[in-house]
């Protein structure tokens, strides 16, 4: 059993504890199951088998049991899950100029994998704080990272980034904004250790980055493809 957090350790980890609790409340309102299995009480169970590790995000191990498609039961499946938090993702788009804004930053994941180019192009993004909605987080992050007021916010889609091993759940939005020439090229909050470079690109050039592979963050790829379909409509 994990000893209870106290003092400075509790203070340091409390924001993420609140994040995960709020994410669990949102997860309880799942969309309907019309094709996939419509789960009933008792169809699955998780039993932790070791204390979670990590100071910000958590990696935890558990034993899972669940109902099989043949009617049987799978017992004792050992798995590890990365517990992150819900995030709001925003693709700023200037409809009149047909431009998008992308964010570039160094990322630990590609660097740890051995990628020699660990600076990635991404949408504006940030965690959904406890007590705020994904829409509120989207508006806040668009201002904090890019200094942009949003004219209109449109939901794109929501879903799990890597359901096989992580709790991360993304809410993606299109933000209709004004993206004129001369916008700032740096963004982010210093107190959050953000070092961001901002790119305003014609939409077709941004979409071409998907084909060349330079746009290699899957959330950005999905959002650009969504926007391409929306523009055609």
TrEMBL record:
<dbReference type="GO" id="GO:0006753">
    <property type="term" value="P:nucleoside phosphate metabolic process"/>
</dbReference>
<dbReference type="GO" id="GO:0019693">
    <property type="term" value="P:ribose phosphate metabolic process"/>
</dbReference>
<dbReference type="Pfam" id="PF00293">
    <property type="entry name" value="NUDIX"/>
</dbReference>
<feature type="binding site">
    <location>
        <position position="125"/>
    </location>
    <ligand>
        <name>Mg(2+)</name>
    </ligand>
</feature>
<dbReference type="InterPro" id="IPR020084">
    <property type="entry name" value="NUDIX_hydrolase_CS"/>
</dbReference>
<feature type="binding site">
    <location>
        <position position="194"/>
    </location>
    <ligand>
        <name>Mg(2+)</name>
    </ligand>
</feature>
<dbReference type="GO" id="GO:0046872">
    <property type="term" value="F:metal ion binding"/>
</dbReference>
<comment type="similarity">
    <text>Belongs to the Nudix hydrolase family. NudF subfamily.</text>
</comment>
<keyword id="KW-0479">Metal-binding</keyword>
<keyword id="KW-0378">Hydrolase</keyword>
<dbReference type="InterPro" id="IPR015797">
    <property type="entry name" value="NUDIX_hydrolase-like_dom_sf"/>
</dbReference>
<keyword id="KW-0460">Magnesium</keyword>
<dbReference type="GO" id="GO:0019144">
    <property type="term" value="F:ADP-sugar diphosphatase activity"/>
</dbReference>
<dbReference type="GO" id="GO:0047631">
    <property type="term" value="F:ADP-ribose diphosphatase activity"/>
</dbReference>
<feature type="short sequence motif" description="Nudix box">
    <location>
        <begin position="126"/>
        <end position="148"/>
    </location>
</feature>
<feature type="binding site">
    <location>
        <position position="145"/>
    </location>
    <ligand>
        <name>Mg(2+)</name>
    </ligand>
</feature>
<dbReference type="GO" id="GO:0005829">
    <property type="term" value="C:cytosol"/>
</dbReference>
<protein>
    <recommendedName>
        <fullName>ADP-ribose pyrophosphatase</fullName>
        <ecNumber>3.6.1.13</ecNumber>
    </recommendedName>
</protein>
<feature type="binding site">
    <location>
        <position position="141"/>
    </location>
    <ligand>
        <name>Mg(2+)</name>
    </ligand>
</feature>
<dbReference type="InterPro" id="IPR000086">
    <property type="entry name" value="NUDIX_hydrolase_dom"/>
</dbReference>
<feature type="domain" description="Nudix hydrolase">
    <location>
        <begin position="83"/>
        <end position="223"/>
    </location>
</feature>
<comment type="function">
    <text>Acts on ADP-mannose and ADP-glucose as well as ADP-ribose. Prevents glycogen biosynthesis. The reaction catalyzed by this enzyme is a limiting step of the gluconeogenic process.</text>
</comment>
<dbReference type="InterPro" id="IPR004385">
    <property type="entry name" value="NDP_pyrophosphatase"/>
</dbReference>
